[in-house]
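Q: Could you fold this chain for me?
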Amino acid sequence: MTNSSGFATENSTLTTVMPRWRSSGHSGEAVRETYEVKIPVDVYRAVSGMGSQFAILAAAYAKVASVLTGERNISVGYRSAECEQPRLLQMTVQEGSWLSLIGESDRALRVCGGYLSGGQLSARTVSAFGTVLDVTGWTGHKSTGTDHGGSGLVWGFDMEGDAPLLQLTYRTDFYGEECITRYAGYYVHALELLVCNPATEHHDHTLVSPDELDAHLRELSGPAVGLPAEPFHQLFSDQVAKTPGALAVKYGDQECTYRELDQLASRIARCLLKHGLTTESVVAVNLQRSVEWVAAIIGVMRAGGAYLPVDPNWPTDRLRAILKQAEPRVLLVDQVTEDIRSAVTDSLDDAARIVTIGAATAEPANGDPRIHVSANQLAYIYFTSGSTGEPKGAMCEHAGMMNHLLAKVEDLDITSGDMLIQSAPATFDISLWQAIAPLLVGAATTIMSADTVRDIDDFIVEAGNVGATVIQVVPSYLEMLTARLSEIEPTRRLPAVRHVVVTGEALKKGLVERWFELCDIPLTNAYGATEASDDTTHHVMHRPPASASVPVGRPVRNVQVLIVDENLQLVPLGAPGEIAFAGVCVGRGYINDEKRTAAAFVESRIDPALRMYRTGDYGRWGQDGVLEFLGRRDEQIKIRGFRVELGEIENAMLRIDGVRDAAVVVKHDVDTDTGLVGFYTSTHVIEAETIREALAEVLPEYMIPPHLCRLSSMPLTDNSKIDKKALLNEVDHAAVERTEGAAPQTATEQMLAGLWVELLGLSASSVGRNDDFFDRGGSSLSAIRLVVKLGKQVSLLDIVNSPVLSDLAAVIDRKTGH
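A: Sure. Below is the predicted structure, expressed as structure tokens.
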């Protein structure tokens, strides 16, 4: 619990809690030990000569606590010679000089003294001080042996000769010796920085020692492994020579061998070159996922171009915007439509060409054109959502792509006997490795259609029929998969699958626990960013993790993960900070977007030669050397694995004629695909359906808020910004109340209404028998969940054809004979 200033109140442990690290082998018994380190004599003399000694000691503590916790508001139990019992000391660590931080701690000490004179804290409150700063011994006073109650960590001093010792007394069930040694080092270093350069900005300095920095770079980086001299498509050609007749790609009834895929790719490459493709020219591949799509990926790279996936189902305006930003030389399509022709005409110059895949694959098969492609050459571009309303095209090079492909092959132990499932949409970056990583080792991939993926039973059956051994899904899909597998015979539960990869969203521990209760198939939690060549960490699990959350693991080969503060300083081990990637994985930036590139791709303060990508995610290192994901620093979310900026949706709403203000929030305790709520104000009444139709012209379906609500005015914060916390409180009131007499009537209708409440995050009073599932916020994914919840009493097609609650209830009654 916190008060209005953000500080802990007396109903909590009162003090800022330091990250607790201890040996995993510790018995857990609460024993107190003390670690001592000498304060350098020159530092002691400098502090003594600066006047406000206790304010300096408190300022150094505040700096250490702020760095370790990532918090600006710091609370600690403070004890001095004037008072036997600790008092509550509250300090705020703002950016500024060390002198300003001393001034803040001096102010806080005066407040702390006034608090004492107003009345001693009760014994119950004192015992709540989890951390105590005891300065009694700094000036030579001997502690009277005061019992600090349940304090887990006491920072104290004791004079020894001509300078004091820093003494950290700690509970061994909370902290380990290695952790306490580091904490003491941070404090001594903070004092050194403070007295040597008091006028400098304290946030320009790191407390991390050279030894700890070395541990970060050496022990917490992926293994350094050499990359092949040849690009991916050349290694694919080498594999063709080894296994020409082996199955490479399967799609429905179509099977394509390595030799056949190689020939298709060469035909496409030669066609692209004929149409003027040059080194790093962009090719927009606007194809449905198919054998030809995989061949097109290889063909583009074989011709020296950069692959840009485009969704054939995108609204024309979105296609137009992306073509304008990426400036492709060639657009490869299944067929030329008026929408495509219009988008190309409006966005590109006369040199751009539209080529059908049929024409490309009809080129003479004259073999690999043998275009030289270097490791630092542009390999592909994937567009992600952008907060300004304009999507961002992340560019990655061949070396980064190759490193990621090999990391997947190695960490998942993919061999020639494996069958992978390619299930992700082409515009989702994970689709790339799903399609082509198996081709490095003679394995095969089965492209699963979107319709098959949508039907969980069809997915399970198809995976079994093709002998799938490795699959990758997003957590929301794993949830449905786990629920459905629990209802079928064990022998039919993905019999050949030996590994499941999960990525795209935060993976919940409860889901992992349910998975391993069901089966013993290993799970790998994969984490990364499109801008850093896809996944950069893997966490392989054979059982649920012991930690409270599911870690995202260790860096893959040739990748460095750095946890930095807002000034890009490396934070100590265990401290929260922004996750940044460095190494071969880091892409070039955003195509034709210098401003956003400069903001996200930066030089490291550790080594100016080290280029980093700032993810905007927050995380920390666990004591076992695995990365823990803590959340986002901005308003970016994941929907079905796609990265979405709420700002892009808001900007699209603002472009609708008559809309004055717009804000999008995510409902709590429901999945993001059903939890987006869009609020808007307008100059005249605009129905939600009108907003929804306008958004459908410019945004993909998954980015359209299922819930839309018109307000007379937006709630504002004190600084006149839209108050999104207040909007979250409005969410429950935004539900449309059912009309009188429209309550669910039959037992089946009432059962369905209960499921709608659960799946769509609606209030029970708002669900009526005449409501349409999709109008009330249902999506294709939530419809699949409804099918699963109903135990396959209805199909996905039944919900599409009968979305009204009473009609769907009638379908269920008819099928079940009620």
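A (continued): The CA atoms of residues 387 and 647 lie 4 Å apart.
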